[in-house]
UniProtKB/TrEMBL annotation:
PANTHER family: SUA5, THREONYLCARBAMOYL-AMP SYNTHASE. Belongs to the SUA5 family. GO terms for biological process: regulation of translational fidelity; tRNA processing. ATP binds at residues 61, 65, 120, 144, 146, 154, 198, 240. The keyword ATP-binding applies. It comes from the Bacteria. It is found in: Cytoplasm. It comes from Candidatus Enterocloster faecavium. This is Threonylcarbamoyl-AMP synthase. Keywords: ATP-binding, Cytoplasm, Nucleotide-binding, Nucleotidyltransferase, Transferase, tRNA processing. Its main location: cytoplasm. GO terms for molecular function: ATP binding; double-stranded RNA binding; L-threonylcarbamoyladenylate synthase; tRNA binding.
């Protein structure tokens, strides 16, 4: 199949003529990748089981890993769900459109092929103008997992999507680099106490400010033992992985504010990198704008600024892909505090590292 790339002239203000063909393809059961404010999504009609099946095939995604249905307005939510709880209403009012996915009990309209056999459905209303208008023009809810091959880092540019999906999907809509860079926060509002299943740019602190009480699925906080079943089936798969062996270095006391703990962390990253360089391997180092000067050997890349954590989220997946392109054998990375956006950053980095974390 020939994958058509459509470049949007001004992604903040897309014209309908630029999106109509993609919208038609979606409505008719095709696959169209498009930008959202989080990462690029691989879209298909969420009500069409056969279209959903094609998503799993293009991504190589296990079929029990459910898809998120994307909508463009509040009215489009109600036909998909059988109950909207009070906490759900509060979250929708506070954070939609935006980078938050909610899990509801599903209505009969949503096929099990979209929900991986579950009686719940994940719904999100993206704020990205291209995504929002494309979904509105399609006139159907759009199932859209990240547009990467399963197991690879999520795509944050159309170029990343092309690397993984060229020849496998009908169209890629190029709206430039995404804003946030990590996937949406997932909150289960089908249960009594809303529970975060995946951290993202809508942080725990922001959710608590709106709801008061919020729980967090234990699967987010560390490696899962075999007997724990994660509530988001996708959490059990190895995700976000670069090809290299990635190790995180973290201060043992969890303190990342003091000069002393930052110094211990950078010294350890340097030492581990030097050991592998001496053995003749290609070694990547993930540092920050603040620590860049501390490293001289290896493939040294800054992931962003400790003072502006949104830059770290924004660059994370692109950097992991860059190390793939550079054919790194090993990557050593500094760590980040677990509050605010740091929780999402460390969740993705820890999973990419297979929870291989060295404490100093
Ligand atoms: P992605 O589409 O790549 O952003 O991944 C979607 C994530 O949402 C996966 O981790 C899924 O397991 C999770 N998810 C989707 N639908 C549900 C659902 N009904 N219940 C729980 N988790 C879900
Ligand atoms: Mg994904």
């Amino acid at each position: 199949m020939n994958t058509k790339v459509v470049k949007i002239e001004c992604p903040q203000k897309p014209r309908d003529e630029e999106l109509l063909e993609g919208a038609r393809l979606l409505r008719e059961g095709g696959l169209v990748a498009f930008p959202t404010e989080t990462v690029y999504g691989l879209g298909a009609n969420a009500l069409d089981e056969e279209a959903a099946r094609k998503i799993y095939e293009a991504k190589g995604r296990p079929s029990d890993n459910p898809l998120i249905a994307h909508v463009s307005s509040m009215e489009e939510v109600y036909p998909l769900v059988s109950r909207v709880s009070d906490p759900a209403k509060k979250l929708m009012a506070a954070f939609w459109p935006g980078p938050m996915t909610l899990i509801f009990p599903k209505s009969d309209l949503v096929p099990y092929g979209t929900t991986g056999g579950l009686d719940t459905v994940a719904v999100r209303m993206p704020s990205d103008p291209v995504a929002n208008r494309l979904i509105a023009l399609a006139g159907v809810p759009v199932a859209a997992p990240s547009a990467n091959t399963s197991g690879r880092p999520s795509p944050t540019t159309a170029q990343h999507v092309l690397q993984d999906m060229d020849g496998k999907i009908e169209m890629i809509i190029d709206g430039g680099a995404v804003g946030i860079g990590v996937e949406s926060t997932i909150v289960d509002v089908s249960v009594d106490v809303p529970t975060v299943l995946r951290p993202g740019a809508i942080t725990m602190e922001m959710l608590k400010a709106v709801l008061g009480e919020v729980q967090i699925d234990p699967a987010i906080l560390g490696p899962m033992s075999a007997d724990v079943r994660p509530k988001a089936p996708g959490m059990k798969y190895k995700h976000y992985a670069p090809k290299a062996d990635l190790t995180l270095v973290e201060p043992a006391d969890g303190d990342m504010e003091s000069a002393d703990s930052l110094e211990r962390m950078t010294r350890k990253v340097r030492q581990l990198a030097e050991e592998k360089l001496a053995e003749g391997f290609r070694v990547g180092i993930i540092c920050t704008d603040e620590s860049r000067g501390q490293y001289s050997n290896g493939l040294v890349r800054s992931i962003g600024s400790r003072k502006k954590r949104e830059t770290v989220a924004h660059n994370l997946y692109g950097l992991l892909r860059e190390f793939d392109d550079l054919k790194a054998d090993y990557i050593f990375s500094e760590s980040f505090p677990q509050d605010h956006l740091g929780q999402a950053i460390m969740n993705r980095l820890s999973k990419a590292a297979g929870y291989h974390i060295v404490k100093v």
